[in-house]
């Protein structure tokens, strides 16, 4: 069952990052106190960098045991393992290593798989083995074109319903080769959190919330089973 989206607007992107990091830590602590091991999925992109920095800062004062959080990725750039383009490298450097996260499942790099399709198949197998079947919190940035994860407008991967991960070639945003969760997998989340800052994304936000066609604005095709929250800064919300 999908949910009606809720919109939360913050004055600046840094206020947004602080609020999201605080909300995530509260959510993780609640799940752990209930005796479950939370499964979350991280996003790459610019807003993620700010949120990850805030997670590093705020985690010390929280009750979250990061060694008991399972960490996934919504998408990844299919490049060398030490490339600065890797979402996992950015997340590790910004906070995962510092907070003591150990159950991290990076998507394959060029050192792990022959091509993007093999990498996607390998990630699907990892999800089957270590995943709970649904994500507690799915965090998604969006591009100015409305893409989420590495699902781009007009791309055939948007129509894949029988896989949880797909390979992408010819991405309009570099680097060209990527691996992404599918809409089917993203929609298997209890909570979906869109994280969006900047006026360049205001038209895509307005279109997604206005019920655009998923082939034009992929973000329009994702919602959480229990909750969908759009965390926006004032500029990203300017066309609502
Ligand atoms: O390439 C990507 O782009 C999107 C959005 O990134 P941003 O820099 O425009 O905020 C991101 O959600 C995705 O994970 C990433 O691989």
From TrEMBL:
<dbReference type="InterPro" id="IPR039104">
    <property type="entry name" value="6PGL"/>
</dbReference>
<protein>
    <recommendedName>
        <fullName>6-phosphogluconolactonase</fullName>
        <ecNumber>3.1.1.31</ecNumber>
    </recommendedName>
</protein>
<comment type="similarity">
    <text>Belongs to the glucosamine/galactosamine-6-phosphate isomerase family. 6-phosphogluconolactonase subfamily.</text>
</comment>
<dbReference type="InterPro" id="IPR006148">
    <property type="entry name" value="Glc/Gal-6P_isomerase"/>
</dbReference>
<keyword id="KW-0378">Hydrolase</keyword>
<dbReference type="InterPro" id="IPR037171">
    <property type="entry name" value="NagB/RpiA_transferase-like"/>
</dbReference>
<dbReference type="InterPro" id="IPR005900">
    <property type="entry name" value="6-phosphogluconolactonase_DevB"/>
</dbReference>
<dbReference type="GO" id="GO:0017057">
    <property type="term" value="F:6-phosphogluconolactonase activity"/>
</dbReference>
<feature type="domain" description="Glucosamine/galactosamine-6-phosphate isomerase">
    <location>
        <begin position="12"/>
        <end position="230"/>
    </location>
</feature>
<comment type="pathway">
    <text>Carbohydrate degradation; pentose phosphate pathway; D-ribulose 5-phosphate from D-glucose 6-phosphate (oxidative stage): step 2/3.</text>
</comment>
<comment type="function">
    <text>Hydrolysis of 6-phosphogluconolactone to 6-phosphogluconate.</text>
</comment>
<dbReference type="Pfam" id="PF01182">
    <property type="entry name" value="Glucosamine_iso"/>
</dbReference>
């Amino acid at each position: 069952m999908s949910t009606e989206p809720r919109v939360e607007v913050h004055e600046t992107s840094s206020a947004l990052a602080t609020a999201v990091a605080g909300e995530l830590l509260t959510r993780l602590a609640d799940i752990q106190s209930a005796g479950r091991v939370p499964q979350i999925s991280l996003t790459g992109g610019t807003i993620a960098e700010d949120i990850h920095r805030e997670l590093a800062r705020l985690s010390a004062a929280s009750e979250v045991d990061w060694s008991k959080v399972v960490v996934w990725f919504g998408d990844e750039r299919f490049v060398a393992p030490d490339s600065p383009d890797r979402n996992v490298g950015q997340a590790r450097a910004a906070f995962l290593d510092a907070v003591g996260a150990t159950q991290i499942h990076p998507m394959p790099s060029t050192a792990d798989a022959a091509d993007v399709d093999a990498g996607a198949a390998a990630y699907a197998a990892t999800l089957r083995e270590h995943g709970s079947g649904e994500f507690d919190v799915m965090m998604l940035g969006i591009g100015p074109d409305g893409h989420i994860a590495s699902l781009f407008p007009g791309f055939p991967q948007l129509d894949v319903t029988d896989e949880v991960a797909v390979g992408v070639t010819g991405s309009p945003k570099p680097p060209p080769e990527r691996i992404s969760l599918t809409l089917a997998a993203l929609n298997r989340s209890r909570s979906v959190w869109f994280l969006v800052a900047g006026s360049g994304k205001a038209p895509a936000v307005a279109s997604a919330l206005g019920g655009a066609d998923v082939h034009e604005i992929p973000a329009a095709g994702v919602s959480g089973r229990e909750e969908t929250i759009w965390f926006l800064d004032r500029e990203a919300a300017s066309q609502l």
